[in-house]
Amino acid sequence: MLAGTLITPRLAEEAIYSRLTCLPIESLPLTQCVGATLRENIYAERDQPPFDRVAMDGMAVDSEALLRGIKRFRIQGMQAAGTPQVKLADGDAAIEVMTGAILPLGCDCVIPIEQLEVAEGYSSLREDVPAVPYTNVDRRGNHSRQGALLLEAGTLLRAPEIAVAASAGMARVRVSSQPAIMIVSTGDELIEPGDPIAEFQVRRSNAYAVAATLRTRGFGRVGDDHVPDNEHLMLERLALHLTTHEVVVLSGGVSMGKFDLVPKVLQQLGVQQVFHKIEQRPGKPMWFGIGPQGQAVFGLPGNPVSTLVCLIRYVIPAIAEAMGTKRAQPERLALASPVTFQPALTYFLPVAIEHDDWGRPWANPRRTKGSGDFLSLTGTDGFVELPPGPNTYPKGFVTTVYRW
Ligand code: AMP
Ligand code: MG
Predict the structure, then answer these.
(1) Could you tell me if the CB of 335 is within 6 A of ligand 1?
(2) What atom of ligand 1 comes closest to residue 186's alpha carbon?
(3) Domains of the chain
(4) How much is the pLDDT for 131?
(5) What are φ and ψ of residue 193, in 5° steps?
(6) What are phi and psi of 121, to 5 degrees?
(7) 95 has a pLDDT exceeding 80
(8) Ligand 1 and 189: CB distance under 6 A
(9) 266 by DSSP, 3-state: which?
């Protein structure tokens, strides 16, 4: 990519994806896989349900007997869940059954307990029960067949998928290993919360926002460092972080100022620049490169709104891509009120998502007073991406939304 050439967000995203190295695979116990990306296909261990399964508590009978007009059945025995199949002795008998039990041999339907009366070892029908075979029986293989593909590699493992993997008998599954991510804030003006602060200094809030974003998305191997605007120190510390981390997320130091040393230092460390600057607001100075061992290095602009927007628009999807996660359908929403934005750049506009009386969600614009005004982000849900203007986007304009 040509140095100094501005690219669109779409091209930036593709440029990142095409250079990422896929993260390694590890085998983890199922309980540790929530939020992980599956890296193998999972097939059905057995038919599902694995047997004709009783779906109601009641009496199992042969529907032939109902056809013959029998209303009173001798209770022969019981079939509880988790017990081997019993056999119906004759057509006039019934077997008491529990939800989840295998349907007794010789029976083909279940009469719910509510439609019966039980007395002295007999069960009498309380009402007319249709003689329809397999009433209240979940038939073997009704949901899926043995060997069917249940979960594809690339699937994000949430509660339903974890349950499916468990049903397939998987005690451990192969998932993407979590990347080691290092957050590095840069800037001589930045002071840690809790430390004394002078008038000309600023709280180091970006690192907290970045860490919170990563943690919200389940990334656990996250480190945090602060590096002053000093070339020598920056070289030393970034060299170390590059040896121990697969992803480095820097904030600050990528603009045009004298102390914006990040691109220069990264290049000295053999991190190949893929692009510098994107046609967007906020976040125009964003930098991206690939380290000597394939490390993904993101130089996010330091202005707090830019940092957060770039992190969510580029870094988070890039990590998902490196984990082999299937790309999700982007979430799209309509603007709740018109927006005017003149520059011919992509505009990332913070929004609060609200529902109208019909339950429809709308993106309510919440403009900031510039990319340093992160106080305006409180109470917002994310931002929308508005394509390059000059333009007025009307109420109802539908576009992609990214959530914090
Ligand atoms: P820079 O991109 O380094 O030129 O920084 C742009 C602006 O963002 C400056 O006003 C910085 O003080 C501010 N800034 C940079 N890094 C952080 C941070 N970690 N937390 C809060 N503000 C920051
Ligand atoms: Mg700076």
Answers:
(1) no
(2) 16
(3) 9-23+178-322 (3.40.980.10), 28-48+149-176 (3.90.105.10), 53-138 (2.170.190.11), 331-403 (2.40.340.10)
(4) 94
(5) -55, 140
(6) 80, 10
(7) yes
(8) yes
(9) helix
Best substitution site from 303, 308, 374, 375 to test ligand 1's pocket, by max atoms within 8 Å of Cβ? 303
C-beta 205 within 6 A of ligand 1: yes
Res. 398: pLDDT tops 60: yes
- 257 touches ligand 1 (CB under 6 Å): yes
pLDDT single digits (tens) 335-367: 999 999 999 999 999 999 999 999 999 999 999
Is the beta carbon of 206 within 6 A of some atom in ligand 1? yes
> Which residue's alpha carbon is at the smallest distance from atom 5 of ligand 1?
302
Atom of ligand 1 at shortest distance to CA of 229?
3
Q: For the residues 360-383, what does the mean pLDDT come to?
A: 97
Q: Are 12 and 282 in contact (CB under 8 A)?
A: no
Letter for the amino acid at 108? D
Q: With contact defined as beta carbons under 8 Å apart, do 9 and 145 qualify?
A: no
- pLDDT per position as a tens digit, 273-308: 999 999 999 999 999 999 999 999 999 999 999 999
Chain-centre distance of CA 229, in angstroms?
Answer: 36
Determine the pLDDT at residue 269. 98
pTM of the model: 0.93
Ligand nearest to the backbone CA of 303: 1
pLDDT tops 80 at residue 258: yes
Which residue spans within 271-366 are E strands per DSSP? 272-276, 280-281, 287-290, 296-300, 331-335, 339-341, 346-355, 361-365
